[in-house]
Design brief:
Elements: E1 18-19, E2 22-23, H1 28-50, H2 58-77, H3 86-102, H4 115-137, H5 155-197, H6 203-240
Antiparallel strand pairs: 1-2
Helix pairs in contact: 1-3, 2-3, 3-6, 4-5, 4-6, 5-6
């Protein structure tokens, strides 16, 4: 019971590698990233290899259901005429979902419980939206900092508020995914430790562990959905200048 439940989130290098003085040592999180990519790529490759049918089989039906669901997000938040963002949105969703789900396997690792990972995703998306905004609207994109109908006397204050709001987007995007995945796995670790160290009442925490593990599977999907939805919203926001 004295074991720190957060030790599951610690990363230790598997051998030490460096390139031009930069530490590039491999660790468990890197292998999980590769596994997440391999699973997504492998499943869709398998579906493609089996052949796409007019009357889809089970795997093709599930894949089409997810893809139609994601296309709906793109259409709703970005626009039907902007479906070129669909491959990026789909790849982002399936990668996060895959990594979230892999983390539920005992002895595995949840890379989305690392703030540096979710933060990298969020910062990349934030920078991407800036490129999209300036690419579409040029310097007129700066008009997003001044909401329509604002009295001129309030414009300086609103510009500051909008800048803070925009800078808060990657922070909230990163912390939301990181915090939810970390909290759920910490609870699982604590309950599992209780079931091992308190055998006379271990059945109760073990039962909760099984129930929460099922809940975590749903959370894995919900967090991937929320992250992807917010990404679509931010892209649509800079395109439509809302």
């Amino acid at each position: 019971m004295n074991e720190n439940p957060l030790h599951h989130f610690e990363l230790h290098p598997i051998g030490h590698l460096s390139l031009f003085g930069i530490d590039i040592s491999l660790n468990k999180a890197i292998f999980i990233m590769w596994a997440g990519l391999a699973i997504v790529f492998g499943l869709f490759l398998l579906i493609r290899t089996l052949g796409l049918r007019l009357v889809p089989g089970k795997m093709q039906s599930i894949a089409e259901m997810f893809l139609l669901f994601l296309r709906g997000l793109v259409d709703d938040f970005i626009g039907k005429e902007e479906r070129k963002f669909f491959p990026f949105v789909a790849a982002l969703f399936f990668f996060i979902l895959s990594c979230n789900t892999i983390g539920l396997i005992p002895g595995s690792y949840t890379i989305t419980s690392q703030l540096v990972v979710t933060g990298t995703f969020a910062i990349f998306i934030f920078i991407m939206t800036l490129f999209i905004g300036f690419g579409r609207h040029g310097l007129h994109f700066l008009g997003i900092l001044v909401p329509a109908g604002i009295p001129k006397i309030l414009i300086p204050m609103m510009i500051v508020i909008e800048i803070i709001s925009m800078l808060a987007r990657p922070f909230s995007l990163a912390v939301r995914l990181f915090a939810n995945m970390t909290a759920g796995h910490t609870i699982l670790a604590v309950l599992f430790a209780m079931s091992l160290s308190l055998p006379w009442i271990g059945v109760l925490p073990f039962g909760f562990t099984v129930a929460i593990n099922g809940l975590e599977l749903m959370v894995a999907f919900i967090q991937a959905y929320i992250f992807t939805t917010l990404t679509c919203f931010y892209i649509g926001d800079v395109i439509k200048m809302h």
